[in-house]
Amino acid sequence: MTGEPQVRTVLGDIDPAELGVTNSHDHLFFASKLLPGQELDDPTAAIEELLHFKAAGGAALVQWTPYGLTRRTRELAWISREIGVHVVAATGLHRAEHYAPAILHRVVDDLVKVFVADLTEGTQPADLPDEPRTGPRAGLIKVAGAFHVIDPHARLTMTAAAVAHEETGATIAVHLELGTAALETVHLLCDQLGVSPDRVILGHLNRNPDARLQREIAETGVFLGFDGPSRANHATDWRLFDGLEALVEAGHGGQILLGGDTTTAAARMVTGGGPGAPYLLTTLAPRLTKLLGGDVVTAMLVANPARAFATSWTE
């Protein structure tokens, strides 16, 4: 380990105390074959979205776009420098459905090499495997579960993530498909593969608003990601506040992370008329403050991300 924990941003490592108000799960760039015509691939739109987020009080954004889905980390670094907002990029691999077959024909050892190199040497486009790694370094590993199960692809990528975590110390962030298979993910990553629960973030817990299950997940000690709470009239949205209140009352407020998870052009505020990244601070945070108190919400936006994304990096 290198010593004191640091957050690895696209512009370099920083003290966790410098991170500030953080959108713990969002996307400035993202493109998947599952979302044709909805690519987030416009740097101008990304700049405008991040400017609005900054104007609302945002200081840091964590992009969960993994390897092979158009991370555009060089643009992330330029945008971060120009706007003055910290940005953390991801390595890792999403669900198999998002990729062309060529990217998926890998074994654990190959994935570990990709993940570790992204974290320690610099990121690289998936379509340029022979080019030198000259991009900014990733600061977390993003993988994904399947609907209600850990399928073979998820087991492969999570195993690779656990090995890469052991080699680097990087936090593992998990996309839970519709919020499911959370306990199964903890069992695999923590119980079987030895990852400490406080190095795991489970995303999309708001998509499965089962209060008893959320409490059981929280008791494992992982970080709890509530991201994308912006779909008006969805049952998951109006249950979000009760769920967060119950977790805070049970003593789990220090594990909660909040994010926007903007994955389509239509969901962007500046181009699609959606809530976009600023919604977290302009709408959700004020409502949560009235319910839970300012100190609690500030912890979710500042103190909790500082602990979740910081690590004593191994080079």
UniProtKB/TrEMBL annotation:
It comes from Amycolatopsis heterodermiae. Keywords: Hydrolase, Metal-binding. The lineage of its organism: Bacteria, Bacillati, Actinomycetota, Actinomycetes, Pseudonocardiales. The modification N6-carboxylysine is found at K142. Belongs to the metallo-dependent hydrolases superfamily. Phosphotriesterase family. This is Phosphotriesterase. The keyword rRNA-binding does not apply.
